[in-house]
Amino acid sequence: MEKGVPIRSITRSIAALKAINRHGSLSMMEIAKASQVPYPTACRIVQTLLYEGLIEQEPARKRYRATALVQTLATGFQHDDELVHVARPHIVALTKRVGWPVSIAIRVGREMMLRDSTHANSSLTFEHYYPGFTLPILDSASGKVSMAFADDEEREMILRFIRVSQEIDLNYLATAEVSLNVERIRAEGYAAQGRNHFNLTPGKTSSIAVPIFKNGRFEAAMTMVFFVAAMKLSNALELYLEDLKATAAAISHDLSNPVPMGNA
Fold first, then answer.
1. Do 120 and 103 touch, CB atoms closer than 8 A?
2. Taking every annotated instance into account, which residue ranges of this chain make up the domain IclR-ED (predicted)?
3. Which residues contact 41 (CB under 8 A, 6 or more apart)?
């Protein structure tokens, strides 16, 4: 790999598989658009994924969906389920109090991946989000929290990896890096996103994220999402920030002080 630049064909194939997995099923044209590849390239990628058994064509439509075989790609991923087990009752209780959906996300590479959410527990949502959904680390409240509370060396490593990506717009990256106010996020204990552009309803929601720690080290981000049309970000911060911080602190305490299984 020359100067950190990935193999383009593999990057494109992974992008196609992630797009299919995220949306449930896609047509060939949608795969090409989501993967940002020419249509003939998308056809070759789909043929390869079909051959490997990672996707299949729907019986009645010319659309493609992931198969159960994609789950085997995660067999080596051993992130502790303790996070979900501990956080779940807290975020469900928080959603009951505030009404808005809450999610837990961890950093995976240069993205934030949902580990759990309460979208299914709230009527105040445009879409349901499930574990595995990803968001860009520099353009999400959870990602900003993750970057701010990462070690300086780790944060620079992530930025260095993003800079050599063939997919990134360098002007956007420069703006995103400048807007990442690490000191402010650490001091105030939260990050916010005025409009979320990389979810299933671009531009229609805002979000506030707070950090979760385990034994003093950053573990995950907890995010509340709300409709842009429902209230200003400043109002949401005034109404909900302290409850968000208290809930994250309770999760952090439980993660750092686990109850023995026999006493649970």
1. no
2. 69-257
3. 12, 32
- For the chain, the residue count is 264
Residue with tokens 């994250």: 248
Q: Which residues contact 244 (CB under 8 A, 6 or more apart)?
A: 94, 190, 208, 210, 222, 224
| Adjacency order of strands within the sheet including 26-27 | 26-27, 63-66, 55-57
Which strands form 205-214's sheet, in the order they lie side by side?
134-136, 111-117, 102-108, 217-227, 205-214, 191-193
Alpha helices in 112-225 (DSSP H): 141-148, 152-163, 170-179, 182-188
Helix, strand, or coil (residue 94): helix
Domains and CATH numbers, the chain: 8-74 (1.10.10.10), 82-256 (3.30.450.40)
The reported pLDDT for the residue numbered 110 is 78
- The rounded Cα 210 to chain-centroid distance in angstroms is 14
Low-confidence ranges of the chain (pLDDT < 70): 1-6, 71-72, 74-80, 164-179, 260-264
122 near 97, Cβ under 8 Å?
A: no
